[in-house]
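SEVERITY: medium
COMPONENT: batch folding queue
REPORTER: lab tech (J.R.)

DESCRIPTION
The queue accepted two submissions in a row. Attaching both inputs and their returned structure tokens so the on-call engineer can compare them side by side.

ATTACHMENT 1
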Amino acid sequence: MGNDFVVSLGCGFLAFSNAGSADQQAGTFMHELGHNLNLGHGAPSGVAGSTIVCKPNHFSVMDYGRQMPNSVYTQSAWESSFNYGATGTQTALDYARTTAPNQDETKVDEVAGTLAAKIGTETTPRSYKVLYLEKNSGTVKLGNSQANFDFSGEGLFSSPTALLQVDINAIGLQPFGCGASSGQILNSNNDWNSVNLDWLSEVVPVGGIGDAQDGVTGSDSIPNVSPNGKEMGPGFIKAVHDKAGDLIEFIPPPSTDGSSVSNAGSNIPMKFRLKDVDGNFVRDAVVSMVAKKGTVSNPIPPGAFQYDLATEKYQFNWISPSGGTANGVWQIFYYQNYGTPNQVLLQGPEAKAAGASYTYTLTLN
């Protein structure tokens, strides 16, 4: 769980120039993204069996047996036309949308088998490919999810009372660790019901937004959610919204097209309005103006701009620089919370749309 993840395919993908095939890239990307969404290899994080791999009853790309095509679960079978519809064989490139019967490897229930539970109001269970170890032949096979599933290879269907023992998830995928692991309880889980977008704690450190790497973690208890807390909870969303940047509307003169010329050392009324991302007037901002010419910087102290409620504008009478070095073109910047960790260069609507920093020039003579 965290803000970020990296997918890097190298060793083991030599046949595809160390980058993996399109299917390998797609499956691995979605698999690793799933870890950031609170999903483990066998179940959501914190749920029993979340670290058990290669379950035949976990219809998820999080399961190593379904992450990418292999020698048994071939490319054509794995892709299955990437079908997410209500009918037909479902693609492996998905998080588990439904469950199948749990299995105890000390008393495998072939009668219940791997039949997928119906989703919502659907009248027919969806079909999934099932990768499993068949007991009698000792080979790894690919079947379809269904009741009366022949894990033993005997052509009969044992109930739990028969005490059929099969290490059904020992499919030998290397280097994924799907080796012998007899006697496990293979619970089936629905991934989508436990996808968690609340990653970072709502506790925000002084001076900014924390993340999992900061050690800022939630302490509240949420079922099936990693204790790493809430990354996209209300507090975080509000902080991101606030960080989006207010929009500044300059009130001429001076003009923002660079055509304004003023005398050096003169009194120049600098005016603007400020709105948030929702279009509401911002009346309590701490805004500073910085005028720069070459290496010379002339910052206006924070709080110098005064707000006039009647006109909804900020104004400061700037005494422009004087003397021989003052003549020339000055670039004007407006900053919110200047000189603090939360400093933001204010942008006008034109610059915001272009994704550019917003400044303008003023000539002194």
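ATTACHMENT 2
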Amino acid sequence: MCRSRAGRARIVAPARANGAGKSTTVRMIAGVLRPQKGAIQFGRARRWPDRPATSSSVRGITLVPEGRLVLPADEVMENLQLGAHIKAAFAGRRAGRLRLLALFPRLFERRGQLAGSMSGGEQQMLAIARGLMAEPRLIILDEPSLGLMRSSPRKYSG
């Protein structure tokens, strides 16, 4: 059995060895993978093993997967817009983009640039900002510092 509880506005960082199942666990929480047995509980939603991953977004869960996965041939603003795929977030996508560009000033500087021409750290910022565009109650970052320079995670952690 695996239990984890995180309070409101909390950061939880599972620290386990490579191959211990961290990515598998977060993919199950996000609804990308189904648990073989048991269920995932988030808020009042008790079970959802048979629902598609898109319903996770509706419940307020967003996964920023390992490897950034930005659309390299699209501009920064187009990548951000993709994150506002939920009806409520879509309605406020302009305000959401402005808020995130203020949070990540480097993305503002690069707003018209193709995502594929940005550095790995800039692409990671874009991937995180795109996840935040959905205004999730829970955002899951899988390997957020993968491929970044050593100083980068400390620089952006506040």
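NOTES FROM REPORTER
The CA atoms of residues 19 and 25 lie 11 Å apart.
No errors were logged for either attachment.
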